[in-house]
Structures are given as C-alpha cells and as structure tokens.
Design brief:
Chain lengths: 190, 145
C-alpha cells in the first residue's frame, strides 16, 4: 500500500513538473538571421543583405514569426541604399519593420531530435511597406546536432506591397518581382 | 566646353558611386546611457523613430554607454555586443564590422563600455514574437574615453 501511494506521489510530481515546464521550451529565438534581396534586369543586378533579422520558431505548434529592421539592408552603392530607404520606395522611416507571421502546416512531419533536412510548407501573412498580404511558401528545415536552420527562398511582387516605379531609372533597373532568401539559425534548448 | 562636360560627367559619376558614410569618422548626434535610449522607445516609439530615424536611411549616429550582457557573432561573422542591465527588459544590440570586430576581443560580461554606431531600429515589445526587441545599432566601434 505504501509503495502504491509512493508511486502515485512520484508520478504526480513528475506530471506537475512536466506540465509546468513543457510549454515554454518549444519556442526558439534567433536574433541574427540573414535576409537577401536580389533584383535582376537586363540592365543590372541589385542585391542587398540584412543580418539583423529577429525570428521565433515554435517546434511544437509550427508558428514562425520574423521581424525585419528595414534600415538594416545594405547595398553595394550608397545611392541605391538611399533610394531604397526613401519615401518613394520602402519609406523605412515610416515603416521601420517588416513582419511575417505564419504556420508550418506539416510541423508534425519533422523530428527535431533527428538530424536531417525537411521540406515544409508555410501559410502566413507578410506585412511590408504598411501592406499585409496572405502568402503560402515553402521552406527547408535542417536539424543538425543542437542547431535548427530554417531557410526560405521566395518571390515577392513589389506592386503587391504598393512599391511602384512608374518612370525613370528605377522602373527599368529594378525587377518587378524580386527574389528573397532567408536563413535563421536556432539553438535547441537543453 | 570640353572641361564643362568632363566636370559634368565627373559629378554624375560621383553621385552614382558616392561612398557609404563612414560612421566612425562622423561625430555622434547623441550620447546617452543605453537604458535611456531604450526607455525613450518604451515611452513613445513613434516619437523616438521620428527623432532617430532618417528618411533615406542615414539615421542618427549614437554613442551609448551600458553594461555588456552578451557577446555573440552574427551570420556575417560580425561581433554583436548587447548592452543591457540585468533588470531591464530590452537593451541596445551593437553590431561591429569586419574592421572593428577585433576591438571587442578584451570586452568582458558585466563591464561598462561606450559604443558608437548608427541606429537601424528601436526597442519594444512585439506581441507576435512574444518578446522584447532591442534597439539595433550597426557599424559599431568602442569609443575610447
């Protein structure tokens, strides 16, 4: 009888411990992700990099969130960077951050305890230049030791986010659809 | 006539190829405690963005003094020094460059230091991330007192 009570007691303590600790360990944070913009036209290729992307990945629910400080994009040419930031283009003073929040729809296919590369599908909302749009994209998740790497490559139609170049050099030198690649690294919680 | 043309072409060439600002060679617009900058963003983020961010991305150059909470590396191999006191919710994240990385070598956690850089974005609580974001400074270097 004593043994049974003891077992129940231990089980109860374990259950309580798990119940109180489990929900918090599934959300991982990355404070130094990388996003690259690439625009190709017959006239020139333009590229910019940002290494200050903050993101979270919830390995249990599949919820992913990205926060991008828009003034952190660096271009090769200073003039291009000024144009990009200006009120005619991304207006980064008025809209200092872009955001994506989404859900990995096949999160249960991923075994975060086993090394490997998994293809995932993400449904979510992108907010850029003050415009929010629903998007569905694919991403790759690589599990390697205690690291989890999330990589995406997507096409972004600038006009969808009210970024329009009607005339002048930008209208001929900047692509209507640009390539966006991103990489975020997370460290599993012990 | 010809010299005018050469000067004209020269100016156009300069404008298209103008160099990036050398943040460390320019005097700071503001000097303050890291916690003061964070507090300004917590009090009124719109007002703080109005004050510190600039239209064409050439935002204010700020020298902040604070306590080193962590030293990490980003995906571009740049050193990132977070200035934040233990009891604070957010701090100032300072990203160095390939040229200035070396200057973080002797920094210690808990040490008080002054770091100068250009502001990229402010601090605040993000309800989607469910966490406090830090102020971000880039092109940083340590200011010698």
């Amino acid at each position: 009888m004593k043994k049974i009570i003891f077992t129940i007691g231990i089980t109860g303590i374990l259950t309580l411990t798990l119940a109180f600790t489990a929900p918090t360990v599934t959300k991982l944070v990355s404070k130094a992700g990388h996003i690259n913009f690439f625009s190709h036209t017959a006239i020139e290729d333009i590229t910019a990099d940002n290494f200050k992307v903050v993101s979270t990945l919830d390995t249990e629910t599949g919820v992913v969130v990205y926060s991008v400080p828009m003034q952190g994009f660096e271009f090769e040419k200073a003039l291009m960077q000024k144009h990009y930031n200006s009120s005619k283009f991304l207006d980064t003073k008025k809209f200092p951050k872009a955001k994506f929040k989404g859900q990995i729809t096949n999160i249960t296919d991923i075994n975060f305890d086993k090394d490997g590369t998994y293809n995932v599908s993400v449904d979510g909302e992108m907010t850029l230049h003050g415009v929010t749009k629903a998007i569905t994209e694919t991403a790759t998740i690589t599990v390697k030791g205690n690291k989890i790497i999330v990589e995406t490559k997507l096409k972004l139609t600038l006009a969808d986010y009210n970024i329009n170049f009607k005339k002048g050099k930008p209208s001929t030198n900047i692509a209507k659809i640009i390539d966006v690649t991103s990489k975020s690294e997370y460290t599993k919680k012990g | 006539m010809l010299s005018g043309l050469i000067i004209g072409v020269g100016i156009i060439f300069y404008v298209f190829n103008q160099p990036h600002r050398n943040i460390q060679a320019i005097a700071s617009d503001y000097q303050m405690k890291a916690s003061t900058l964070v507090e300004e963003y917590f009090t009124d983020a719109i007002l703080a963005n109005e004050k510190y961010l600039q239209d064409e991305g050439e935002s204010k150059i700020i020298a902040v003094t604070g306590t080193v909470a962590s030293i990490t590396k980003d995906l571009d191999q740049q050193q990132v020094v977070l200035l934040k006191d233990k009891n604070e919710k957010a701090g100032v994240s300072c990203t160095f460059t390939s040229e200035t990385n070396i200057n973080t070598k002797n920094l210690k956690i808990g040490e008080t230091v002054t770091i100068k850089g250009v502001i990229r974005s402010g601090a605040g609580y993000d309800e989607d991330l469910e966490l406090y974001e830090d102020v971000i400074l880039e092109k940083c270097d340590i200011v010698n007192n």
